[in-house]
Design a protein that fits this description.
The protein is built from three helices and no strands. By secondary structure, it is mostly helical. It has two domains: 31 residues; 72 residues, no CATH class.
């Protein structure tokens, strides 16, 4: 006795629809919506994350003039913290490391 392929297809389609509609109903029943306070917390966290990324991206652009200004000037007029000097490298690495370590904790 050979089964009709259309009948089998219809039966499988009904089973599939029943399972998926039940799963969809359960998902909508168990869904938790965020309160306005929770949305505000997420927004503030996203702004802090964006600020941290901005600072980490801008640091390479401002570190050279910042260290030159903070390091002082020699009698000849040259900055004491010249790029490439061991002291400059030490301070540049310290600024990068400290900023990355504290990112997210103090912002």
């Amino acid at each position: 006795m050979e089964e009709n392929p259309r009948l089998l297809t219809r039966m499988l389609d009904r089973i599939w629809r029943k399972r998926h509609t039940k799963a969809d109903q359960m998902a909508t029943e168990n869904r938790i919506s965020l309160t306005p306070v929770q949305w505000l917390i997420c927004l503030i966290a996203a702004i802090g994350f964006a600020f941290d990324i901005y600072v980490l991206l801008m640091l390479p652009l401002i570190i050279k003039p910042a260290l030159a200004a903070l390091g002082g000037v020699a009698a000849s007029g040259a900055p004491l913290l010249a790029p490439g000097s061991p002291e400059y490298v030490k301070w540049a690495r310290t600024l990068f490391l400290c900023r990355r370590l504290q990112a997210g904790f103090l912002d």
